Amino acid sequence: MDLESKNATLQSELDSATPSSLLKRNKDPSSWLPTTPRYCLESHRNTVNCVAFHPIYSSVASGSDDCTIKIWDWELGELEMTLKGHTRPVLDVDYGGPRGSVLLASCSSDLSIRLWNPADEYKTIRTLLGHDHMISAVRFTPSGNALVSASRDRDMRIWDVTTGYCVRTVNGHSAWVRDVSFSFDGKFLLSTGDDMTARLWDLSVISNPEHKLTMLGHEHFNECCVIAPPASYQYLAPLAGSKESSLKGSAEFMATGSRDKTIKLYDSRGNCFLTLVGHDNWVRAVLFHPGGKYLLSASDDKTIRCWDLNQDGKCVRTVTDAHDSFITSLRWAPGVVKNTLAGGTTTDGSTKKNEGDSNVDIRCVVATAGWDCKLNIFAN
Does the keyword Zinc apply (predicted)? Predict the structure, then answer.
């Protein structure tokens, strides 16, 4: 049966791989999907836990159990530098920061968050302390003025990037908070973790976050979450039984991945309207294609799966053996903002803008990290 299903998948890919459809797909970034890695980057001495793209340059950062962060050039496939400072495994990295100054944030099992300055040879400019247990995720707000961290101490903390002060501690989860995701405008934050829930927070007033919604349904710890970009609304609305014209918010749909091997999609009322089944092991990362039509996921079954939201969430591509072992992270390179005004160069604006926006060019570049100590780059 396995062979038959693999055969059917290959046959459907062959059927859709006519010269004209391939040409069209290669020219249309909104339908590009990863196939085979362009580069397998090796230098880490232990599991690579996380990866993040620089919003402007062709740099990508990776964090590892070897306590280091490595900066690579994904266009050339070369190692640029190694950052040392954390004393325990690095669990997450993210680029962002206030307009005009891109920063790299990292968090670790050593209970610290570090801010590095890429413009000054990645020197540490600030160390943020306050969590009582390992810190599993860090994300800059789209404006870049604040940073949110999630920890095994069950809390999330909001930090002022310029002062380094913790401006708010957000409680709500009853167990380890593993992942967080912002809406494109920064008004909403989605969090998930070992209590098997996903929670949506209203951050309109960042000093006073309001809990809006709790989403249930998974049968094991949740590993990852993401808020859908507006580019996906036209595909998700019919699946959720709603009209696209009535969707005005920036957090209308959300997705979570779990150790129960499934991905669940929720609407803004907290209803689970679709469960994607196909992975054979823990789902460790989920993201929406910037074009809006696909959802991508990575798993401990060593595969990346691409789900077509226009075909009721059908899995239309499986990248088998994307790594030699468990996959820990999956990131899509941020789009490039077109027609930027002179003197108003966009820094994190290019990362966090709505990727479905006609003013943003989609970059067909995906990075994955894994237990095999590798960072893989998939590019068109």
Answer: no
Amino acid at 25: R
3-state SS of the chain: helix, strand, coil percent to 5?
A: 15, 45, 40
11-46 pLDDT, tens digit per residue, is 766 665 556 555 555 578 999 999 999 999 999 999
End-to-end CA separation in angstroms for the chain: 33
Instruction: Compute CA distances 253 → 227, 244, 249, 345, whole Å.
Output: 6, 12, 9, 31
**The token pair that represents 268 in the structure block:** 């803004």
* Nearest CA-CA partner of 242 in 278, 269, 212, 203: 269
CB atoms within 10 A of CB 262: 19
Of the CA atoms within 13 Å of residue 213, those in its CB half-sphere come to 21
pTM passes above 0.90: no
- Answer for the pair 60, 375: CB distance below 8 angstroms, yes or no: yes
> Alpha-carbon distance 140 to 369, whole Å?
20
Nearest of 288, 196, 282, 216 to residue 251 by alpha carbon:
288
Query: Tokens for 190?
Result: 């989605």
Task: Output the six-digit token pair for 221.
Answer: 């710890």
Architecture of 172-320 per CATH? 7 Propeller (2.130)
d(CA 108, CA 55): 22
Domain residue ranges in the chain: 172-320
